[in-house]
Design a protein that fits this description.
The protein folds into two domains: 2-83 and 167-218, no CATH class; 86-163, no CATH class. It has five helices and nine strands; from the N terminus they run βααββαββββββαα. It has helices spanning 15-19, 23-53, 86-89, 166-173, 177-218; strands spanning 2-8, 64-71, 74-81, 93-97, 100-106, 109-112, 127-129, 144-145, 158-160. The strands form three sheets. Strands 1-3-2 form a three-stranded antiparallel beta sheet, covered by helices on one side. It has a three-stranded antiparallel beta sheet with strand order 4-5-6. A three-stranded antiparallel beta sheet has the order 7-9-8, with no helix packed on it. A hairpin with a 2-residue loop joins strand 5 and strand 6 (109-112). It is elongated. The termini are far apart.
């Protein structure tokens, strides 16, 4: 799953700086700005989601992916999301009467009719039988699974409980759009200045080397 955002940006303010760079250094400046913008957007979104779900941000590692692209004066931001598992949120526990489970809960979240297998590849994983009266695709959007490891077949008897975060990411990302564009422009300006300074430094080093070489040859 992924969200896409596109916006045009004007490079005229930095055109003089871009013209002063070689094609290679121009790519380095643009690439550095895009990479840092992606990092900035990812941290912002993860912080927001972690606050909403009351999770440590590390629980969202490898669950939210941000990429930025630039083509023909258009900044493209792509955010990919992957669902969370209940054990990422907290420690799952069974609720209900003795010897009659009502389901599994983690903090304020509940999965009626679910159970935790004693022997599972992921300890703490939560599952439900698709034949259960409490099974609904909305509450259990995971894929069907059997011991043979096959997916996407309605005949398979159990499905894993997951927490979808795509809607939360979209809500968190919406207000950040203008801020992301402004951040990109600030970073691009800084990266251009950085490459100009590195070009000048490289020129001075090359001139110094040439002078030392000519002096050595002259001797």
């Amino acid at each position: 799953m992924g969200l896409n955002f596109e916006t045009e940006f004007d490079t005229s303010a930095w055109q003089a700086g871009l013209n002063a760079l070689t094609k290679k250094r121009m790519k380095l400046a643009m690439g550095g700005a895009l990479q840092k913008t992606a990092s900035f957007a990812g941290k912002k979104v993860k912080r927001d989601i972690a606050t909403r779900l009351k999770l440590p941000q590390k629980a969202l590692e490898n669950r939210i992916h941000v990429r930025t692209f630039k083509k023909d004066g258009v900044l493209r931001v792509w955010i990919g999301t992957e669902h969370l598992f209940p054990y990422s949120v907290g420690v799952p526990s069974v609720y209900g009467k003795t010897r009659k489970s009502g389901g599994v809960k983690v903090r304020r979240l509940r999965w009626p009719g679910a159970f935790m297998p004693k022997k599972a590849f992921n300890p703490g994983s939560v599952w439900i039988r698709m034949s259960s009266a409490k099974y609904t695709p909305e509450l259990y959007p995971g894929k069907g699974f059997t011991a043979r490891g096959k997916y996407d077949d309605p005949r398979f008897p159990i499905v894993q409980a997951v927490i979808e975060i795509e809607d939360l990411v979209e809500e968190a990302f919406g207000p950040l759009r203008d801020e992301i564009v402004q951040k990109f422009e600030t970073l691009l300006s800084a990266e251009i200045d950085k490459q100009i300074m590195m070009k000048k430094e490289a020129g001075r080093e090359q001139a110094a080397f040439r002078a030392r070489f000519e002096e050595a040859v002259g001797k």
